Amino acid sequence: MPRRHLKVTAAVDAPLRTALRGLRVELAVPETFPAAVLDEAEQVAQAPRLPDRDATDLPLFSIDPAASQDLDQAMHLSRRPGGGFRVRYAIADVAAFVTPGLALDTEAHRRITTLYFPDRRVPLHPALIGESAASLLPGQARPAVLWTLDLDADGRTVSTDVRRALVRNRTRLDYASAQRHIDAGTAEEPLALLRTVGTLRERLEAERGGISLNVPEQQIIETPAHGPAAGTYALTYRAPLPTDRWNAQISLLTGMAAAELMITRGTGVLRTLPAAPDGAVGRLRRTAKALGIDWPHHVPYAELVRSLDPRQSRHAAFLQECTTLLRGAGYTVFSGGRVPEFPLHAAVAAPYTHCTAPLRRLVDRYTSEVCVAAVAGREPPEWVLADLDALPAKMAEGTRRAGTVERECLDIVEAALLMDRIGEVFDACVVDVKEHEPTAGTVQLTAPAVVARIEGGTEPLPLGERLRVRLRQADPGRAKALFTPA
């Protein structure tokens, strides 16, 4: 999933869409699936490998963006007799449709992840699989990997089970409708408990020193075609709702439970992240200063982030920059009982793995297989073991590609936002200076929330200080935003 969420509204047209189309051509992003892949998808969609267990009586619900059709997860929450909670979490079983070595599998290994552009997404699987036959769409019986996670009254995991089952999503919600039902007190208990369990898990996250970034979705919109500002762009934020956070906590809970299963079994693949270097945190402190965010030196980073309100534009801009601390995340494979020396994900502050988005990420199909096998007390399938050692490099390739798409899209969006303001002067703060070229670096504008290069001055840039800067160039798809000292 992308660290930054960029979305173009339907009103936006050329030159932004033209630049985004050009980027896809430049990066050789596939526009369609090969005929052999589509043929296989049509065949397996009619005859998936169905599990023996039937759990269609479980009244699952899902929470996703309103327009999404690739529904990876559905859940049911209940209270346990004697106290505590039970989380049932169904994950789309992609392995019911994809046979190792055949066309769908080969294409998934070529694509690795779904790619997100502001105006469209490029999926991991054909729509017939990812948005239909394998998707946990409401009212449809679907093969799934069904997790059962029992929690105590404080939200701590006390037991874990995972096995294949046929499930049916009864109710599809989006974040706004789920939030309305919870806030109004009209939510049935399985949905109402999302706030209870989500809040408990957030409390435990704070206790162990973990941090979840509630990064707002950035939307670029075109101004109406009249008035003095006609034809220009504006950047707005959609702040996450509490249901976004609580829903994410269920996914984190499952990823942590999966990691513990694999560690106990001695075989698996973890999502790992080292602690952020001091220099990266120092850069964030300078960004906080630029945005007028008070960050006393005695306040830890995690505590500061939890105090921010993504509905405030300055806080939203800072949360976007906090994603830079996620750089360095990777996948660590282990087998034969040789658990990695450093198995932690620094942001989660616990062992963790990706297992809840198999419709959009290749590795999740493998982690599900390892966990199902671990609970059953058997070895993972041979195709999993054969591919395991190559997964980190494969996923690193996909992550780099997704990161390139994210960065280039952001450059295009920022250039589109600024293209009619060349020559204007902005308030900014210098957040980075090149070590061997002190007159060049990076500035963060006070408004709009743009981070861009600066060069062309005669004096060394004042690191961490405010500076008036002039926009020298901005042309979406052709020239990234570039500033010079004013």
Concise structural overview:
By secondary structure, this protein is an alpha+beta fold. The protein has 13 helices and 19 strands.
Can you put this structure into words, describing what you see?
With 486 residues, this protein is α+β, with helices and mostly antiparallel strands. The protein folds into 2 domains: 14-274 and 328-416, no CATH class; 420-485, Nucleic acid-binding proteins (OB fold (Dihydrolipoamide Acetyltransferase, E2P), Beta Barrel), CATH 2.40.50.140. Helix content is 35%, strand content 25%. It has 13 helices and 19 strands. The protein has helices spanning 16-26, 35-46, 103-111, 127-133, 175-184, 189-208, 242-265, 278-290, 301-307, 313-322, 363-376, 382-388, 391-418, and strands spanning 5-8, 60-63, 73-79, 85-92, 115-116, 121-122, 141-151, 157-173, 217-222, 233-238, 268-272, 330-334, 344-345, 350-351, 425-434, 437-445, 451-454, 466-475, 479-485. The strands form 6 sheets. The protein has a 5-stranded mixed β-sheet. Strands 15-16-17-19-18 form a 5-stranded mixed beta barrel. It has a 3-stranded mixed β-sheet with strand order 1-9-10, covered by helices on one side. Helix 1 (16-26) packs antiparallel against helix 13 and helix 6 (189-208) packs across helix 7. The longest helix is centred in the C-terminal third of the chain and has 28 residues, at 391-418. 43% of the residues are buried. Residues 52-377 form the RNB domain. This is RNB domain-containing ribonuclease.
